[in-house]
Structures are given as C-alpha cells and as structure tokens.
What does this fold into?
Amino acid sequence: MERYDMLRKPIVVLLILIISCIFLNTAEAASAPPAPSSAAAVGFLSSQIAPTGLIDSYVEDNTDYSYTYDDAMAAMAFISNGDFTSAEKILNAFVAIGPQPEGGFLHRYHANNGTSAGGLLKVGHNTYILQAMNLYYADTDDPKYNELAKKVADYILSQQSSNGGIYGQAGVTWKSTENNLAAYSAVHNLGVLQNISYYTDKAEAIRNFLITKCWNGKRFLCGENDTTVMTDVQALGAMVLGPSYSNGAYWIKGYTFNTQKYATRKTVSGFDQNTDRDTVWTEGTLQESIAYMVAGDINNFAFYKNESEKLFQPSGALWAASNQGTAGYGDIFYRWQAVAPTAWYIYACNQDNVLAVLSK
It folds into this structure.
C-alpha cells in the first residue's frame, strides 16, 4: 500500500500540472486579441471619426482631442485602402474649419465641435495634411481640395529660409529634419500633381537643404546643427529621399533598438524614439519597417511589422507604445490605443510609402 501511494502521488501531481497548463493555455487563448489585420485597423480608424469628421486621436486619454497630424495619417490610411468616403469626412472637416489667416491649420482641435483645443500654428502637422490632400487628388482625380492645399503649401513656404530650409514656425530659428522631409515631399508632390513649377522649384531648395545641412553621409541629424539622435528622421529620410539615404535606418539600431515586456510573459522588440530605450514606440517601429521596405530589405520589413503586431488590440488599434516611456523633448509615450500607429500599420500592410516623392 505504501509503495502504491508513493507511485500514485507523482502521478497525481503530474495530472494536476497537466490540467493547470491546459487551463492556462485555454485562458490565454480566450483572452488573446484577434489576428491583426488591415481591415480591423481600418475599422478602428472609422470608429474614431467624430460627427464633425475629425478623428479622436486616442481612446484612453479622456479627451476628444484631434491632432491634425493624426487626421492626416488617418486620411492617408483610408486613401491607401481605397476608402475615399472616409478620407473625405476628415478632409471636409478641415474645409469646414478653414485655415488660419496665415494659411495653415492648428495642431489640435476638439473632435466633437471642431474648435481649437489649445492649438498652435506650426509647420510640421501642416506638411502631412497637405500630403493627404495630394494623395486624394492623385488617386481620385478630384481637385476639390486643391485650392486649400495651395494655401497650406504657401503657409509652409512662408517659413522658408535663404538656405532652403523651413523653420518650425514663425519666430523660431530651428529647422527640423522631420519637418523638412515631410515638407519636401508634400510641396514637391503638389507642384507635380497640379503642374505648378513654383512649388517644385521651392521643394528642390528644401531637398538641397536636407542633403547639405541635415545628412552627414551616414545618418540624418535631427535638424540643422542639431546632433540629437532620434529614430523617426532616419526612417522618414529613406522614405522621402529613397534607398540612397537608407543607411540611417540601420545606423539607428545601435541607439534606439530595445526589447520590452508588454505582458507578463511576452516581449516585443522595436525602436524607441530617443536613446534611453525605455519603451518600444510602435509608430517609429513601423516607420523603420517601411524604410527597410524602401531599401529592398524585405526580411527586416517583415520582422518589424510582425513585432508591431504584438501590440494589436481587439478594437483594431495598436498601442502607441509597449509601455509608458519618454519620447524626448519632454514628451511621454503611453500605452494607449492610438490613431497614428494604426495608420502606419495600414501603410505597412499595403506596402505603401505614403511619403514617396512623385516623378515630374
């Protein structure tokens, strides 16, 4: 009897362990989000459109803030997916709001009523809403936003300096590489699409600034005379200027690549925006993925797209980051369901470089 008990106890323990593993695996499977898909991501973006047509940028921030950058990202994602009706809702909202007297839009509005939410007039976000209008015209041949696009472009060019670079806003002396990359693409593409050489000529001056003042032969500076290390400019540089300027997308791995836990037993690898490597920034990781696609590096393109999918949520959104972390310049990334990374995920799914410079 004692011998039987000695044999039975390990068997009982083994059975308990097996049942526990089955229960845990079943519970994890039941709570796991659905498989990531472009269709689900588009559904999330659609669900964030307010009655005004503006898009609510985050789910968990307890505000109705609509950032113009996010509106532009969402509009381009809808265009990339062939959903022009949803893109029109967003772009029509900007028609209804109307630009500032200087010609550009504020950086933030209330999604529910279209009024300013402490909005500031800066160049950066205007470059992306301009590009969204460009892509709408390129894909539909409908010119209804062309006049507004020119007003936005004229505002951007009102900040152009003698060396071709664009200041970040009126009254400052700094020139951001990111702003100038997006400005070059958007202003050039407007000139090509509307056949206006004034804009392509001005854009060529921006390109020359980028190559002579922001590219050091190995990677992009953060701005003119600004050696700060940031991920986005390396990725966007390849997307806008092409494979010849993709080295920075590889160089940056030594400074911002990291791996973080996003669940008890799960990790995700990708890029932070800055060098403290305290979070995986989903948007920047997807930007890097597309930069590798531009460079013809399909393995890295797929790897970072797949890593980003780990942060896909049942709503169809992607988290802004794997965990709370610093973004540089005093900003914080939060683990919120967010419009911008979800839009970038759609671009990656469609293998669509929405910042590509069009041929003349």
